[in-house]
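Researcher: Structure for this, please.
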Amino acid sequence: MASDGVGEEVRNKQVIFRDYVKGFPKESDMYVTASTIKLQVPEGSNGVLVKNLYLSCDPYMRNRMNPPIYASYIDSFNPGSPISGYGVAKVLDSGHPNFKKGDLVWGITGWEEYSLLSATKALFKIQHTDVPLSHYTGILGMPGMTAYAGFYEVCSPKKGEYVFISAASGAVGQLVGQFAKLLGCYVVGSAGSKDKVDMLKNKFGFDEAFNYKEETDLDAALKRYFPEGIDIYFENVGGKMLDAVLLNMRNHCRIAACGMISQYNLEEHEGVHNLMNLITKQARIGGFLVPDYYHKYPQFLELVLPYIKQGKITYVEDIAEGLESGPAALVGLFTGRNVGKQLVAVARE
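Model: Predicted structure, token format:
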């Protein structure tokens, strides 16, 4: 096995993006290959050379598989190049004053064993190592910040409110539900299997949960769990679920539009029909992107680290072993194969 010797040339296994994707992504849209990399930051560069430990599988990555013409707020992947995303890594060499050899970081990195990162703006130094490092792909990383920003900043929650979360067992949803319970809210989540529904109630402490695949009428399901209506909806799926929520809002309901995974693989997006209710209920729906809130990361850690250490928040991870398992793990997000936060362990240290 390669040592972490700076300056040495080593083999670098990579997950390469084959070509732009239509419909549901497949494992064959990516392939694993190996190149070589010199474990050294080039002379005069202020980049950082890292050894990748954990890689995060996130639904937004599907949008990066579209051609640039359809690109959203983030650039498309380049066919023939490694895919990239959030991860946890160890610094082996640095030309940047804020990072030194041996530092642990989380942020945007390549899906490969070693990465030379020139964009260090999106890198956070890991100060707290008394929690699992893998948590920095989830509860202490981008998904955790997403839950925090969407719930506290976009929804302005109050004690006793009625909160509904779709895709509630995922990386973000499981956390939003626990934040809401800690605040004294009534919390219901939807998920796609009996096991996930059981986990929401028994592990994360949701008041109620249901399997949306077993509900023929989502409007009726929501009326069953929210006879008085919904104050806050944390939106992860879009489509028919959003339409049903719009029929079940209380006055001044807030909807945080975090993701709409039901639409990512459709060539024609579904329409939403009940928007008139936003007016009659004086409700508001707000989209948000987590990088706009990264300046609040220190406050987020102050809130969440004590909860983790006191056992007041629990977090479920679904860890795929080895870079080779990356394509299957990423594609599995869109069929609900993962239970909890999906990540890939590239190297444990």
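Researcher: Any notable elements?
Model: The chain has a mean pLDDT of 95. The chain has eight helices and 15 strands.
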